[in-house]
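Incident review: delayed structure delivery

Summary: a single-chain prediction request sat in the queue longer than the usual turnaround. Root cause was a stuck worker, restarted by the on-call engineer. No data loss occurred. The affected request and its eventual output are reproduced below so the record is complete for anyone auditing the incident later.

Affected input:
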Amino acid sequence: MCAPRRKAFTLIELLVVIAILSVVIGLILPAVQKVRAAAARTQCVNNLKQIAQAARAYHDQNGAFPPGLNVSPNSVDPNPIYNFPAPYRGPYVGCLAYLLPYIDQDPVYKQIPRELFRLNTTAGAWAYSSGPFDFENTDLPTSLVNGTGKGYPEVANTVINTYLCPADNMGSNSDPKLHVIDGVGFNRLAPSGYSWSYDWVYNVPNYGRELGRSNYLGVAGGFGIVDPADSSHAALKPFKGIYYANSRTRSHDISDGAAYTLAFGEYLGGLHKDGTREVELSWMGSGCFVTRWGLAPVWGLTGNDYSRWMFQSNHGGIVNFAFADGHVSGINRTMDYWVYIAASGIADGKPVSADDF
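Output delivered after worker restart:
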């Protein structure tokens, strides 16, 4: 008699198949992740190229690069107790907003009130000047109130993909106490103390959660414009960058060479190694940042973490930067600190070569 045909796998055969599949997946997954990481970095490089080219197009049309951040001494805020004192009240519109028409985002640009772009404007901070205000919302805990106005231009909520690095996950953090920067950055002076400052709102629905985010900032140099009386940052005074508060830098001001001068860099807002983040950044307030704190992870209890005061990326050991001539290159986090500072200045006279990057 013939034995009946077997129609199923034995347990041993199933275990062998599962083991083989596990090995195959284990071999493929790292390769897939590597491809995704490479694709994300390529897209980030393309974003920075578009931003750098947009800045050059802006320069060609306006005779200078856009201001790093519009900070008007004439700005008047309806709720001054919730904002910096004069001359730091606003409007806090950053250079990326000025570049919108040059990255095919003219419809977004046209919805932003013109007075927010004018230097020496009387317009108040764009995120604080139009009610209803958060302190009028009885459903909002007082711990999350800082004077934010719900009536800010809703176009600031638009997602601009060119301003987002695909290797980041900004906007996914649900912590309402997370700061969302609406304007960075400027040098605060005496008597409030010489420091690098930014303005922020909370990550609260209707008062900041919806803001379109950004991963890129203009480079302000070592410490922006160092006040003559600021002895604590005197060593950084020669290293003024392209973008700083109310800057109007022209191409011929970059005497150190456009190919060796940093123009825009990546920013993650202090994304720590444990996955937590200190701040996020809105494109409306993406602005400019200084190189004072370097690139190396030297923060935290064990001295190997990151801070909100650093350019930072999710691309392994490098951070992508666009240079003034429009090309983009990754800079190693181990780059010499003072070479990095020199590369961020436009006319410091310190020699920097391609071998330094």
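Verification: The radius of gyration is 24 Å.
Action items: add queue-age alerting; document worker restart procedure.
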